[in-house]
Write a structure and sequence with these properties.
The structure holds two protein chains of two kinds. Chain A contains nine helices and no strands. Chain A is an all-alpha fold. Chain A has one domain: Up-down Bundle (Butyryl-CoA Dehydrogenase, subunit A, domain 3). The relative contact order of chain A is 0.11. By secondary structure, chain B is α+β, with helices and mostly antiparallel strands. Chain B has one domain. Chain B is globular and about 80 Å long. The chains are: A mainly alpha, B alpha+beta.
């Protein structure tokens, strides 16, 4: 293997190891299912590999990868969201003893959130996850979703409004979570 | 990633942000599947390259300028496929020939053959193995690249996907891979054939891919329902058109021509014979 190629491969491997947890978590919120999240995160990184020269040379490699993931999600999961409506027992959530007063209630909140997210249209879900989990600005979110800032605002507002209207979630929201 | 940027967000948004973080952080992500990602990434890149090459061949065929001008003559099985100087050998890049493509219902299918010239020494063999890996291909050896020295490798690949799908969306499947010091050289009416499903992973083996002598002008593929499909040798340098059956030369494969038959119905393969 040539030196340059070997160096690129090593860079990519380090990138995968470093980004995997974050990509998995974003994918989990987008898909609502651990195994679907693994598929999405892995296929995102596979596509990243094919474009690694461009990605690694980009000013913001993470933005590039995020765009790949959102495109993949839009393509693969948009029409299948209903499959993930109900979080399964093996959804991947860790049920470890939590440092909160009411771990069962925390698990309920997580389940309610996943279920509520799954009922959002894909674009609203993507906007909410990118804005409020990835903590992106509206401009960054628009770039990741390949749409205008106005569309991001609209999708985010609608998504948040729907989440707030979900009874099981509204309780947790009003209580400021259960932490 | 806590997801709370504070300013301009009402309390409910902050709570949702906190819930998202709590839910996401509750996921046990496990170890990164680095090797699997790299392997699959290489395969994906290979598929893209193969698809691009297929597209190039299809384009050349449909414009009537099929890029097969260096093919061996129909009756001259001893002619070298690439009479180029030594530095023109395709050791690190394959020669790709599309043998046939067609449609079955609303599914597009096709067959191509990749030929990799024989490496001359271990260094070339190691580099060729790496190049093949970039295409998602593994030579049919025990894993020691030295075994490739002096051996031509060829890979038979079928692909299928929805009609109108981009090349990137087609599914490619390896049908056969061979590394050999002597390419098959069928004589008289000898036929070597492989069978596969035509447009998926399972089902009747409706696709026949094989080699025949370069002198063969027609192959009859017989199906289990009693029907027959005739594959005629395509005129030299003729455009590649959608078909059910054809015989064509393959670049880098001077000792035989290749044929493909696709069953027009649901019947599976029964036999094949040279009829002309």
């Amino acid at each position: 293997m040539g030196d340059a190629k070997q160096t690129r491969d090593e860079e990519f491997r380090r990138f995968v190891i470093g980004r995997w947890p974050g990509l998995m978590r974003t994918a989990f919120l987008l898909t609502g299912d651990r195994y679907a999240a693994e598929d999405l995160a892995q296929s995102t990184l596979e596509r990243t590999y094919t474009a690694w020269r461009r990605v690694s040379a980009a000013d913001e490699p993470d933005a590039y990868v995020r765009r790949i993931m959102i495109n993949a999600h839009a393509r693969k999961h948009r029409r299948r969201l209903k499959e993930f409506l109900a979080p399964k027992d093996d959804s991947g959530l860790v049920r470890e003893p939590a440092d909160t007063a009411d771990p069962m209630a925390r698990a309920d909140d997580r389940g309610a959130l996943l279920e509520a997210l799954a009922q959002l249209p894909a674009r609203q879900r993507e906007a909410v996850v990118l804005r409020y989990w990835e903590d992106l600005t509206e401009t960054q979110t628009a770039r990741a979703m390949g749409c205008s800032v106005g569309t991001v605002k609209s999708n985010t507002a609608k998504g948040i409004a729907k989440l707030r209207a979900v009874p099981a979630l509204a309780d947790a929201v009003l209580q400021g979570g259960r932490k | 990633m806590t997801g709370v940027d504070g300013k301009g967000q009402d309390a409910a948004q902050e709570r949702i942000s906190a819930l998202l973080a709590d839910t996401a952080n509750g996921l046990e992500t496990g170890a990164a599947p680095v090797d699997a990602v790299v392997r699959a990434g290489r395969r994906h890149r290979a598929r893209r390259r193969t698809a691009a090459a297929v597209a190039a061949v299809v384009l050349a065929g449909t414009t009537g300028t099929l890029a097969l001008t260096s093919l061996p003559g129909g009756n001259d099985s001893s002619a070298p496929a690439q009479p180029a100087p030594a530095d023109g050998r395709r050791v690190f890049l394959p020669q790709i020939s599309q043998v046939a493509f067609g449609t079955s219902g609303d599914v597009r299918w096709g067959v191509n053959v990749q030929v990799w010239s024989a490496p001359r020494d271990k260094a070339e063999a190691v580099k060729q193995t790496e190049a093949m890996a970039d295409w998602g291909l593994t030579p049919a050896t025990s894993g020691n690249p030295s075994e490739l020295v002096g051996r031509t490798s060829y890979f038979v690949i079928r692909f299928y996907g929805p009609e109108g799908a981009g090349n990137d969306e087609l599914t490619h499947r390896l049908v056969d891979s061979v590394s050999t010091s002597r390419l098959p050289w069928p004589k008289e009416t000898e036929v070597e054939a492989l069978t596969q499903p035509l447009t998926g992973e399972d089902g009747a083996h409706r696709l026949v891919i094989g080699t025949v002598p370069t002198t063969a002008k027609q192959v009859a593929c017989h199906w289990k329902d009693g029907s027959t499909t005739l594959a005629d040798r395509a005129p030299e340098n003729s455009p590649l058109l959608s078909t059910d059956a054809v015989i064509r030369p393959v670049r880098g494969f001077p000792t035989a021509n290749w044929f493909v038959c696709a069953s027009p119905g649901s019947a599976a393969y029964q036999s094949a014979e040279v009829t002309k």
